[in-house]
Design brief:
The chain is an alpha+beta fold. Helix content is 61%, strand content 15%. The two termini are 37 Å apart.
């Protein structure tokens, strides 16, 4: 019975240490894959928005070079006044930009090219002269960074779980050995306990 009790303690210690490791890995997934998943995309969008906000102080070529995007300008009559030569999926992007009009403030929309597996962001912002400036750019780099991040998280998860299992087993066995060295009182069998109880009752009767 003593050995069985030690085995139960060892199992509980093992699963407790393993649970702590699983909770730690879950926290890493929550922060990296949940909270920081779209940080690359948001950072890219913020950079383009800042460049478009200074459109009056910059040239079209400078903005396209700084943001690695293609510009499309539509005036208040819904007429295209400028279109970059390298505008990806020209017809689709023009229809997407025109469907976003009229714009009161800067807005962002996404277009997926399933046949090539690439996403594009379309950011539109109203200009002072009444026209609307659209910046179209690929999100392939940001999506690739997110994909690599998920791969790294899976690799880290597998390594941490394996190490946690090994360390948990070692700690559980080490603690079990420490428990065995403690001066535990002898454990009586059920028959011994019953006999001791009967004797106690007999002594109480004699005293009475």
């Amino acid at each position: 019975m003593m050995i069985r009790g030690f085995k139960r303690i060892s199992s509980r210690l093992f699963f407790s240490f393993l649970l702590m490791a699983v909770l730690t890995v879950s926290l890493i997934w929550l922060i990296q894959a949940g909270l920081l998943r779209d940080s690359y995309v948001k950072g890219k969008i913020k950079t383009v928005e800042n460049a478009l906000s200074n459109f009056s102080n910059s040239s079209i070529e400078d903005i396209e070079e700084q943001t690695a995007s293609s510009l499309l300008i539509i005036d208040e009559n819904n007429t295209i006044t400028y279109r970059a030569q390298g505008l990806p999926m020209m017809g689709m992007m023009q229809r997407k930009a025109q469907s976003m009009l009229p714009l009161v403030k800067t807005e962002t929309s996404f277009v997926s090219a399933d046949h090539i597996g690439v996403r594009y962001a379309v950011i539109g912002t109203p200009a002072e002269d009444g026209s609307t400036i659209f910046a179209v750019f690929s999100l392939a780099d940001a999506d690739e960074a997110s994909r690599l991040l998920r791969q790294q998280l899976w690799l880290i998860t597998i390594v941490l779980i394996c190490l946690a299992g090994i360390i948990s087993a070692w700690l559980a066995n080490a603690w079990q050995a420490q428990f065995r060295q403690l001066p535990w009182p002898p454990i009586k069998s059920k028959r011994a306990i019953m006999i001791s109880g009967l004797r106690s009752i007999q002594l109480m009767n004699l005293v009475d």
